[in-house]
Amino acid sequence: MYSVEEIICQLLLRHSCVIIPSFGGFVAQSVSASIDKENGIIHPPSKHLLFNKNLINNDGLLTAEYATFNHINYNESLSKIDLFTSNLKSELNAGRKVELPKIGTFHLDSEKNICFEQNRYFNFLLNAYGLGNVQFVPTSKVNELVEVKSIPTIEEEAPIIEIETPIVDINTPKKSRKVIKYVAAAACFLPIAFYSFWIPVKTNVIQSGLISLNDFNPFYKSEKGLYSPSKAGLESVKFEDVSYQASSIISEPTYTESITSDSPIKTLPTSTPIVNSTNKRQAFEYIVGCFSSNSNAVNLVNNLKNQGFDATIISGGNLTRVSIGSASNPKALDSLIQLSNSKGYQGWILK
Q1: Was domain 257-350 assigned CATH 3.30.70.1070?
Q2: Does the pTM exceed 0.85?
């Protein structure tokens, strides 16, 4: 089962604001790369976290994400987060420091204000994943290097080396020199002539187009293959038409997630509810998602329809809104809202 700290860490990687109900919220801000010339360190781009104790209203993001990952309903998820918040407050009131893994530490100052210090060893900016600090030698230390003292040169007289010139007998017979030339020419020509005959005639270089070291060995004998071509034929495969009845198909579990931003829709197994769909829209719509990207809205509508909801896209405004159902009055939407909450979809009523 995923802990609340792990869910908060996952949300901070994808969102710029994550609120812990009745405690406070994290606000992320992207910071570009910087150079520390005095200490000789290049810091990569990162995401800095600020804690605001006034952000205590539940926006449903943390609760829905916790319910989705742990396969529980929305109300049970809300009670788990309330228990986590109460334990966190009791630890701080006792004067202890509370550390959230990969996020940072909380403590109270002398005036009982909540202070937060971010963990500098974990970078929440996905674009800078894997980048670390780069160290270099600062210019201040380069100027402090000790200059190498010049070593005085000692002039010495170079020793005189006598080289004996070989004596060549110019009286060597001309015939012996010609014989040496002919022998050297024959030593170069005979191997070329031999292999120009041997390789095309005694090897299969021309047929295969490949040459190996064994082709240059006149004493090498290639072994014949011991295989024989298979005479077995392939039987024809008959395909039969298989018809499936709609009643025999078992619906697989569908996967849903509460959508509060334009992040890609992730999936987790839930059971398929039975909701009567109708093509005629009523006066009041229950909106469960607003998107700036139309493709994300279409994906959510398809997932909701697979679960049996009468979902559709409501036009109007700067964002594309997704409705999970409609009714003639707000009270008629109570059963739909309860069913939607049990599946982790939180929304609001549009008239």
Answers
A1: yes
A2: no
